[in-house]
Specification:
Layout: H1 2-27, E1 30-37, H2 41-54, E2 58-65, H3 67-75, E3 82-84, H4 88-96, E4 106-110, E5 113-117, E6 136-139, H5 145-156, H6 160-163, E7 167-170, H7 173-181, E8 187-191, E9 202-205, E10 215-220, H8 227-237, H9 240-248
Parallel strand pairs: 1-2, 1-3, 6-7, 6-8
Antiparallel strand pairs: 3-10, 4-10, 5-8, 5-9
Helix pairs in contact: 2-9
Length: 253
């Protein structure tokens, strides 16, 4: 009698387990990994919300960071289906090395370079030589595109050597923004989109002829595990709905 009860009990437990597994399998979402330039964080959180609302079966996994660091992660095998860089250089490198799916490299959006200060009015780049600018926030020149664009400006204005002792290097654009808003630096090189929602800062727009065009490219990684869904997501990211969100954050096309 005891043996029969034990068998019935074990059978019930197994039924409950398999039903639970089947239910979990049915509700399991498709995970798509996106490596996105840190400066795009705010609009991408909105884009993620909109896409997942319309596609209940998809879970977008967003990985934000400097474009150079993200590119290196991809090369080292980190999970990534879509890459959005703040510079064409890193996307070009991935394309040339065979990491991108053919015909999936497109221009995603554009931006502008600005110099921002919480406390000082800026009338020109040369103002940075003034003693009131003791610390200047700039993205790491090896991995952060906003820092690389700023570096081009400083070289073209022939004032880089005058300012090098003042530079504080950040891991990405968002770190420069945090330092600038908290006045931990006296000025910082940023994208215009970074400060689009802040009103109590002083902004100097930098002449676009002093640096390379700020173009954000998008590409699909060839080894994507969810290629069909990834292509759908890329199509959405290039749609008018996504562009509207980007425009709200100061990006251009």
């Amino acid at each position: 009698m005891y043996k029969k009860i034990l068998i019935i009990f074990i059978t019930l437990i197994m039924c409950i387990f398999f039903v639970g597994c089947e239910k979990e399998k049915k509700t399991e979402k498709i995970k798509v990994h996106l490596s996105v330039a840190a400066s795009l964080k705010d609009p991408f959180l909105k884009i993620e919300q909109l896409y997942e609302k319309e596609h209940k079966n998809v879970d977008l996994i967003l990985n934000f960071g400097s474009s150079g660091a993200l590119k290196q992660q991809i090369v080292q095998g980190a999970p990534c289906d879509v890459f959005i860089s703040a510079s064409t250089n890193y996307m070009d490198e991935l394309k040339n090395d065979g990491y991108l799916l053919d015909d999936t490299y497109n221009e995603f959006t554009k931006n502008e370079l600005v110099l921002v200060s919480k406390t000082n009015t800026i009338n020109s780049i040369e103002d940075l030589k003034n003693d009131k600018y003791k610390k200047i926030g700039i993205g790491d020149l090896n991995t952060v595109p906003v820092g690389q664009y700023a570096d081009e400006v400083l070289k073209n204005k022939d004032i880089k050597k005058d300012l090098e002792d003042k530079f504080v290097y950040a891991k990405d654009a968002m770190e420069v923004l945090a330092w600038t808003l908290s006045s931990n630096v006296d000025a910082g090189f940023l994208y215009s989109s970074d400060i689009s929602k802040y009103k109590d800062v002083n902004i100097y727009k930098i002449d676009s002829e002093l640096h390379s065009p700020i173009i954000y490219p998008i590409g699909v990684i060839k080894d994507s595990k969810q290629l069909e869904e990834t292509i759908k997501i890329k199509k959405f990211l290039l749609s008018d709905d996504a562009k509207k969100i980007l425009k709200d954050y100061g990006y251009t096309f």
